[in-house]
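Newbie here. two chains, one complex. Structure please?
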Amino acid sequence: MVASLLNKVVIFGVGLIGGSFALALKRANAVTTVVGFGRSEATLQEAMQLSIIDRIGRDIATEVCDADLILLATPVGQMSDLMARIVPFLGAHSLLTDGGSTKSDVVREVYAQMGGKAGQFVPAHPIAGAELSGAAAARADLYQGKKVVLTPLPENSAAAVQRVASAWQTCGANIHQLSCTEHDAVFAAVSHLPHLLSFALVHELAQRDNRDLLLSYAASGFRDFTRIAASSPEMWRDICLANRAALLQELQRYIAELTQMSAALEANDAQRLEQTFHTARELRAGWSVK
Amino acid sequence: MVASLLNKVVIFGVGLIGGSFALALKRANAVTTVVGFGRSEATLQEAMQLSIIDRIGRDIATEVCDADLILLATPVGQMSDLMARIVPFLGAHSLLTDGGSTKSDVVREVYAQMGGKAGQFVPAHPIAGAELSGAAAARADLYQGKKVVLTPLPENSAAAVQRVASAWQTCGANIHQLSCTEHDAVFAAVSHLPHLLSFALVHELAQRDNRDLLLSYAASGFRDFTRIAASSPEMWRDICLANRAALLQELQRYIAELTQMSAALEANDAQRLEQTFHTARELRAGWSVK
């Protein structure tokens, strides 16, 4: 696919998500100029040195008025304020997208802050590793073969969705579409709940006097189960709160499942335990990350 | 360390655990003859071809009467019957050990089946990968640098414990000692509970009509969290039942922890969520498998 050329891309937040987006577009020769905004001057300077951006943005008004595409790659909590600052100066042909892990909250802010220009914002969630962060972690191939989920608004024109999809495809991503509600329900089940459960296990152990003894006998099963408990507390606090309703529902279902397993164990019900484990194993053994 | 030579080692169950024990002793030139017993003739023949064993055992009485060391490397559920068949013929200088993942149940069977010869059984739990199984998976270096937990009985002489420890050390293992009760409490917390939780998550998803959609969006966090849900259903049924009391206690603590997290989420308590995640992250980030 030949990507259409983007004359100017403006990125807010030049860390792993934003920086990798810039590097991927540059590697594809799909952009003329990338302008970066950020809260840390040091990160912006680093992004310049790494050729992630061509220029540090100093004035939102002059930079967004003629941008082809604007990416909000900051924590979701900062997006509302940025939208409010961008929208008065937004060019008529300019589109926005974002890299947030939750979508209903972003969409809510789009309607709250962008009013009649909501149709220019096409929400996106790139499913790409978040273990590292910062400009130095950015890689041109971060999105190669990865999924990007778009959750278009009714106000988005087909052409707007297509232009945003095309930019992410140019980065190597495969495009999927869900409604923002579907998106948040899916990720509550397969991502947000497992993170919460992993944090919970390690937090519970951390309260115990004999935690060092316990951890000294933990092996590879524990290692993999708890890898995500080393994720960013701030980021996961925000994700959990942003997707609170769906996550609470998942948590209740899971507690009910555990209560059933506890009853089977209490009753020495070997057959039910084996059947439960067997069903899980069949599904898990036949699955792999695509 | 120069290992004392074992003239004859008899292994019941020549799969991953038993086969690797044999190969490790042979590589160290620490054994003259290894005799293998098992329920599957095909597996025994395979063990012969792979030079894991020198001879297939045909008669328990004649093989165990002059064995230096006997390893029970079968599922724990088969050990009781084996002990009953071995004990009438057990040589006065022969020692037994095992490779079971739970210890209180093995110790109970030792007392039930071996009576006055209980002191000749030194229970052991080698902490080594159980993802593979069968004779073909056996490796001389499986125990290299791994932990083996001995849970000696009051009836074991110091010399008996030392001789069994020495055999495991010859395989490359580091020896630790716990009481069988301590052992089972520790592994309920750091191994058995995480397995149960991982099985529960996948089993819960398996019940849903939209499981394929959900799994299509699952990524690396889910992959690692659920890796152990592909473990053997039969083996984990047995482990859960064998360590039922300790595991039920862990499960209740965990459900209480989840109930607290659910309350924090319900109350939009950002600070409490972040503090919980932060505590977990600190502990997990500072830990690695040793």
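Moderator note: The first strand of chain A starts at residue 6 and ends at 12. The CA atoms of residues 7 and 32 of chain A lie 5 Å apart. Thread marked as resolved.
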